[in-house]
Amino acid sequence: ILAQVVAPAAAWLCAAGHRLIHCLRRAGWRPPAGLRGGSRGGAASAWTERGAMLKCLPFLSNSGDVDQLVLLGAKDAGKTTLLYRLKLDWKDIAFVLGGMEEEHDPGYHYEELSSRILPNYGMWDVPGWMHNVWPMFYRYIKVSAVLFIVNGSDAALDKEDTMTDIGRMIGKLLNEDELRTAAFILIVNDFDKDDAGQGHDDEAATKNYEVLCDILNVKNLQQKNPRLKCTHMNCSKITETHPTWRKVLTWIHENKMSLAK
Q1: How far apart are CA 107 and CA 53, in angstroms?
Q2: 123 with 164: CB under 8 angstroms?
Q3: How sure is the predictor about 133, in pLDDT bands with cuts at 50, 70 and 90?
Q4: Rounded-to-integer distance, Cα 150 and Cα 185, Å
Q5: Bridge partners of residue 228, in order along the sequence
Q6: CB-based burial of residue 124 (10 Å sphere; 0-12 exposed, 13-18 middle, 19+ buried)?
Q7: What is the CA 21 to chain-centroid distance, rounded?
Q8: Residue 23 pLDDT greater than 50, yes or no
Q9: By the 8 A CB rule, do 72 and 126 touch?
Q10: CB proximity list for 150: less than 8 A, separation 6 or greater
Q11: Average model confidence (pLDDT) for the chain?
């Protein structure tokens, strides 16, 4: 039964990864030499790229020593921006993704990264509109941490229905059996500008963060779930050495060490 479920999912994920590589190439990115295949369109090239994508699946490769982080959240929260800022340090990533036609974006993205705090970790970016299939990722992959990204812009805070849905998503994820030991980090994405085009300073971003935490009743959730941590950052400007990102990785590492005791 597991094979019947996993095999089609793996094929879809690999195809999605292939489409993502194509989109990034159109935007000017070039893959490392180790991921390039033979002649364009040739069988060798196709199998090389499929093999590279298969390696991202822990149950199909020898990646058991890689901590798996899942990026979840509503649509347009900033998940993909965060992933590729960390992976490629791409300063214009938010602009490129904003101009990408939705049908050309495969949605699912995966990258492996490294740091001094977490030597090897993989990050799964799963689109918000696919929330019905989120369980496919964390039920067949041992997840070390859930990073739940929330849009912290002024406009997003005014959407009561969206905030209600986000609260329900967080509550459901915190109570999923497969995620009960995983670190859970709520990240509010600070945006540079509001809808009127006015710049946001640190004070305004902090205020929005505090308001959003009140709306989502974070303090009450933390009393019931001590592994829930919260912070805010501008996902379009984050880097691997940024203090806030290093704090996030430290939380994940500390949760991992507490489970090993």
Answers
A1: 15
A2: no
A3: confident
A4: 11
A5: 184
A6: buried
A7: 17
A8: no
A9: yes
A10: 73, 74, 77, 156, 166, 186, 187, 188, 189, 212, 216
A11: 76
Statement: the pTM of the whole predicted model exceeds 0.85: no
Q: Give the pair of three-digit tokens for residue 209.
A: 């963060």
Alpha helices in 27-153 (DSSP H): 43-54, 79-88, 93-99, 134-140
Query: Bigger pLDDT: 199 or 147?
Result: 147
- H/E segment holding residue 246: helix 243-260
The Cα 118–Cα 206 span in angstroms is 27
145-195 pLDDT, tens per residue? 999 999 999 999 889 899 999 999 999 999 999 999 999 999 999 976 544
Comparison of pLDDT for 37 and 17, the residue scoring more: 17
**What's the CA gap between 247 and 215, in Å, rounded?**
24
pLDDT band for position 211 (cuts 50, 70, 90): very high
The token pair at 111 is: 């990258």
Of 186, 229, 191, residue with least CA distance to 208: 191
Q: Which residues have C-beta within 8 Å of that of residue 7, sequence separation ≥ 6?
A: none
Q: Which helix (H) or strand (E) holds 187?
A: strand 183-189
CA distance 193 to 171: 29
90: tokens are: 């791409």
Find tokens 């090239």 and name the residue: 45
